[in-house]
Amino acid sequence: MLSHHRARFGAPAACRALLCGGALLAAFALPVQAQNLSLDEALSRVATSDPAVAANAARLEAADAAILQADIRPRDVVGVDFEDFAGTGPYSPLSQSQTTGWYERTWERGGKREARIGAARADVAIVGQQNRVRLLDRLARVQAAWVEALAAEAAIPVAEARLTDLKRVELDVVRRVTGALDPWFAAERARTNVAQAEIALEQARETARNARASLAAWWGGSGDYQIDAAVFQALDPSVPAAGDSADVAVLAAEITAAEAKVKLAETGNVADPSARVGLRHFGQGNDLAVMVGGSIPLGSKAANRGNVERARAEQRALEAEVAVTRVEIGREIDRLVADRRLIASEIKRIDEEVLPSASRAVRLISDGLARGGTAFTFLEFSQAQIAAHDARSRRVELLRRFHLMGVRLDRLTGRHAALIPTMENAR
To answer: SUPFAM superfamilies recorded for this chain (predicted)?
Structure first.
């Protein structure tokens, strides 16, 4: 009796233990949902791990070293002259020789040293602005990879819808073939279309995986994340707020450097005197004498006039190029905005006119085939279904182009320039 009671009592406990264990196993077996990745998150990851930052830092270090070099004045010179230590007649004995040891220094005049340092600092500013352009270009490439990943994800539902429609029609066609309403080749053609749609769906999914992996490669991660498809469907053809153009900033830095080079070239018009002092030893009599000398170049203005004119011409060319660049950037922004508006208009018409009509045609023909009527053929359905699929694919491609144009707009207007300090501090 006691053993029977224990058996009755132990059975529910064992069941509860099995249920708890099963629940735990099921909980661990549930797949972990991949993290949603936004554009800001992708750019932030690149901003903190991009190896290009180290290359930019090395360029700045090289430019800073040029400032150190520019601060060095002309080196002093120490020399020794031997005179009359060998010859004929009275100069043949070594006792007639004269030996002079001397020290020479050159004094820079006209602000040459300050002008060199100023030119080197201007070059550092150019390198800094060029680094900003490189980083903005890399961020634009990351954003373009993000758009490509969005487009690849958006192509999957299109391929899935096509496969679903073709499978449903394949069943209808098989029923019609068995009912002697359609020839056997129609069923084979339907099977072929289903097989092709399955291949297309597999390729769409693989393309999406590759696009995610390509995007994650920018920060050395894996493609185990998701992208919000709603972002891809959003259309905002407005003009982004324009900031300071990085390309114009490079030219502005080059103009400043050109001004510094003009000043440096002008300092060449001022001659640099040098002075020499030495001690001469006379072999005959073993006497010593102090010698002093100096020199100054002649005709300095004429000798450096070409360098001055060249530096001024380069400065004028850069000033003109700034105006040209501003106009070109403005034109490209206007063109991109106009093209994006055209694309948004076409997408709107596809949504309001093309897709409803194409879907209605597919549904009508599908219903007709399912009822067993002879008003429609499989060829007509295939054509209608292809038209609907092409409209959906066209819509995805238009969205892709729309967002890629947005990438270029963001690059021209400097939308992501705020990330540059983060990238520079990451080194």
So the answer is: Outer membrane efflux proteins (OEP) (SSF56954)
